[in-house]
Here is the input.
Amino acid sequence: MSNEKILLVDDEPDIIEFLGYNLTKEGYDVTTSTSGKEAVELAKKIKPDLILLDVMMPEMDGIETCQEIRNVADIKNTLIAFLSARGEDYSQVAGLDAGADDYITKPIKPRLLVSRVKAILRRKSGGEEVGVDEQEGDIKIDREKYLVYKEGEELSFPKKEFELLALLLSKPGKVFTREVILESVWGGEVVVGDRTIDVHIRKLREKLGDHYIKTIKGVGYKFES
Amino acid sequence: MSNEKILLVDDEPDIIEFLGYNLTKEGYDVTTSTSGKEAVELAKKIKPDLILLDVMMPEMDGIETCQEIRNVADIKNTLIAFLSARGEDYSQVAGLDAGADDYITKPIKPRLLVSRVKAILRRKSGGEEVGVDEQEGDIKIDREKYLVYKEGEELSFPKKEFELLALLLSKPGKVFTREVILESVWGGEVVVGDRTIDVHIRKLREKLGDHYIKTIKGVGYKFES
DNA sequence: ACAATAAATTAATATTAAATTAACATCCAG
DNA sequence: CTGGATGTTAATTTAATATTAATTTATTGT
Here is the structure.
């Protein structure tokens, strides 16, 4: 059986490995590359069904690479999906209309990635609409920029609030006890008063809206969308 | 009864010794390893109940090791908890969804470590993650999310009710006497009145439906489907 | 190094959900 | 019928968290 071929392009080996592993496990025939230039050559050679292309890359970025590919007659109709770090300004990318077939934000959970990939490949036959990022829950954080996104809006948070939110967000739905929160946001030795966590939760709720963080009395707090 | 086996993996001998000592003292059967590769082999051999895995290790890091383990049919369902230095980017790790069951930051106090380990191991028997295969008329609990699932519906329970239900559910069909219930839900010293348990049972029956919890007069209560 | 500003923490009190008790009802074995 | 056991409902108490403001502690810019 000839599996569907995916060309995965990202300059970070970690990402390559992580995504590659998950796609391979799903039965796809995965080729990888860490540069845009190389990717174009590879594409010509192996004729992939789908190219996953990181937007931000040194030298030749995803957009250029995409345009290059669209220029080569032989492979110009290959499906291309952009990968971008959550929080990067994709409106610009979308505005450039570089000719991508989908747009996927990182980090992404394996299951979600796979279902997106399946969806794109399914679209190949019947021309469905282009998907722009269906999110899982509408609050996101960008650790690098230290920003929180709420429905597209960007919000800036002080350190402790950010860390607390990041923790809750690291596993939505999971209840984090006060003990665990203290341990992981404040650290072992530091002793802070009983109401400190409450106050930070308050601040978060103030900025995000009440319904995101739920209290389980006697147990802890959890994030839910 | 043979003790529960823990495989402890960290590249720093000091950490190994410190954590190992404390876990052994608690009665766990501890095996240690300083490399991810070796850990996978050891895991195959001894089939631990839980693997504590340092995220940052030379050669093969915790995440890779975790993925490896998840790949070996024989041990793929072993509980795995990540250990990481505080301040490392846990959201990223969690986001990678490498399949860990918990996330513990170092340094950690012995007592807290032990209680975390107990919690993880307890989860094994109790309710597991997201309700995938719900059976009709069945009740499940998810300790991590502190939720009860009844025919796919999510129900939120207060602490004592949750713990009581969890106890009954831990061995469906078994009759739990009032003494045992008090002992395990309330704890040794606490003295509460005669009707306290009844009232909690009432609340449970109210929310779940009468037929799930059966009274054995003069003996106790049991859960049955 | 200093003031200005923001963040984090504590303090004091209010609020609320949860747990318990109380008061009475019912059930059922003997 | 009767008495111990459990059921039920509402009232009460308690424990946990929420809230707001005041205070302390960091951070920043000059």
Summary: The two ends of chain A are 41 Å apart (CA to CA). Residues 89-96, 125-136 of chain A have pLDDT under 50 and may be disordered.
